[in-house]
Amino acid sequence: MPLSPHPFSTNPLKTRADLHNALESFLNPLAPHTSPNGARIKIGSTATHYDETAAQLEGFARPLWGLASLLAGGGKYEGTERWVHGLAAGTDPESNEYWGETRARDQRMVEMSPIGFSLAVAPGAMWEPLGTREKENVVKWLNAINDKEMPNTNWLWFRVFANLGLSKVGAPFDPERLKADLDHLDTFYLGDGWSRDGPEGVRQLDYYSGSFAIQYAQLVYSKLAADTDPARSEEYRDRARKYAADFVHMFDEEGRAIPFGRSTTYRMAMAAFWGAVAFADVELPAPLSWGVIKGILLRNLRWWSRQDIFSSDGTLSIGYCYPNMYFTENYNSPGSPYWGMKAFIPLALSESHPFWKAEELPYPSSQLPKTVALHHPSHIISHLGGHTFLLSSGQACHYPLKATQAKYGKFAYSSAFGFSVPTGSFGLDQHAADSMIAFSEDEGETWKTRRLAPGARIESIDGEPVLISKWFPWPDVEVETWLIPPVESVSENWHLRVHKLKNPNRKLMSVEGAFAIYGQTSKDGRTLDTFDGDEGRFTKLGEAFAVSSAGAVGILDMSPGDQRKGVVMNVDANANLIAARTVLPQLEAINLPKEGETWLVSAVFALPVTSGETSVKGTWEERWEKKPAVPEWISKLMKQ
């Protein structure tokens, strides 16, 4: 007997009432997992680098991003008392559900942020019901963050929110620490709305720079501190206006965000920035009207409602489009995905707010450039060819987290095809090198892919943006790469990758991958076989291609030397964020020249199935034939 659908999957997600119901559908399944006094929520048994008590605190605290927003907007939730009782028990040293003392760099610091937010926006529900001793315990527990060492990253915002929450309920807090943290966080600012997630020398400008942490926090602060810190609040609002003009390009017409970087298991938090814009009453420049902002956020939520994101008990799973542990970070507990509740902040707004009164409008494709260079994050974003994707070079996390080379080092990331992470270290199917070039010097036993390219830059060549980088698979082997976006009305489904390999004396193999794609047939769900006119795979010298119900992807060798072999590989299951079973068109070179320079030129094709379509039959053939030309300036470089 089939399981009943999760209420979120049948929610139209059009109105404020719909969003309220959606939030309840996330909160209700947590009740059976909640401890007797409410302080701990244990959803699963997978581990993190921090202790189990902190993990269960995470399960308690993160849903507060949504619940507190609902309460701030005058909404009611029958289970609110679970969190009120939990706050009292978790901060009580004599309770068997006490969360424990905070140490340096403690995960407890992270979860103080939603608690501080709750006190600030919903004191009537979360603070006033507490008794005198309970309030004293909460104040002491939160204030413990003020004399502890913290990571020099967006974490500093968590201490800001702990102090801000205390200040809003008239409790003792540390105003000097609050100001010092804000002053230091402002040193992360790069300009044009962008902040890096860390000090100078760190080039990490992923969703933490926006929806996950920094921009979101700045906007909430600008609303809550408008009277006490007006100059800084207005500065944060101005940053949001500038940032929005770039960030809008991370979304597509169907509501999807481009998955990129770490913590993508936070899912709908990718779009939370747009809700924070509304919360802070920030009017954005055209074409980002209230109706457009509303559409971006609600379409994103509706897209998530169609994905397999819940466990059988109705709680959020760790994963992206389906449960998946391969791509997770060592700080992702079963409660971590509830950071996505940040997207529910419009519930803090009344029905009369312009966000809710506005008619939902489509993504403003006709009013945005089809190709745009974003210099701060070192991205070139394309809206051509039926999907939104970015070309990337130069970013890296401030520490080498799991699969960091896949999360930041790939050449391309797509809203339609996502990206893949390694599932193991033996065999190319486990390396899952989509949108990467991989090198081996031991006949394929191990492979090197790009992680760091610190000198990456965007240049305008013949009026078009080109992303240029250098990286070193080995200290004596240099790879210089040019990434060239599609050309409108010429070869819209193709982007070019050009690599100049300098190899002093190593026997090297290389493999370069296109986008990975869902790899099962519509007919019987079996793995794609030889192309039959509708679906399947085909290869020949210099070409590899695959077409399925998800669309079509391929790669074409345009190198000046010997052509590489085209293959379509079955990727190890669960490597890709979007599709659990994928295939990957690749170009293989078994024996690269051992000395001197070698040029490798690849044209990468992608055509996804869009909403309302069931296949790309009758479309992909024509677009495949509109192959790109190698730019003249590249040809000149190769002849030098």
TrEMBL record:
Classification via Pfam families: DUF2264, DUF2264_C
Organism: Morchella conica CCBAS932
Protein name per UniProt: Uncharacterized protein
Domain DUF2264: from-to ranges: 15-363, 369-636
PANTHER family in alphabetical order: LINALOOL DEHYDRATASE_ISOMERASE DOMAIN-CONTAINING PROTEIN
